[in-house]
Amino acid sequence: MEGGVFAIDLLQRKCRIVRDPSPWKAGELTIFCPLDPLLAELRGALLREQGESDQSQLMFPPLVLTRAAATG
After folding, report:
1. If you ran DSSP here, which 8-state letter would residue 16 be given?
2. pTM summary value
3. Mean pLDDT, rounded, of the chain
4. What is the 3-state secondary structure (H, E, C) of 6-60?
């Protein structure tokens, strides 16, 4: 969703998230809202509410776990 635009088409009564709002023609009743500022505000609010975790000292990157094929 980052870099996206929330497009509200008032005539068709539809909402969608698009990357590029340029296909819309001038004069159409469409409201465009960039998502980056909204996502940044939401991210900040969620982080403020989350508080400090008991595991906050464990700053390891996430790992992808896979099962090794058995050989033998």
Report:
1. E
2. 0.51
3. 80
4. EEEECCCCEEEEECCCCCCCCCCCEEEEEHHHHHHHHHHHHHHHHCCCCCCCCCC
Residue 42: Cβ-neighbour burial (10 angstroms; 0-12, 13-18, 19+): exposed
Q: Tokens 């940044």 — which residue?
A: 40
CB atoms within 10 A of CB 18: 14
Q: What are phi and psi of 18, to 5 degrees?
A: -125, 160
The pair of three-digit structure tokens given for residue 59, joined into one six-digit string: 């700053």
pLDDT for the residue numbered 55: 58
How many CA atoms are closer than 13 Å to the CA of 66, on its beta-carbon side? 4
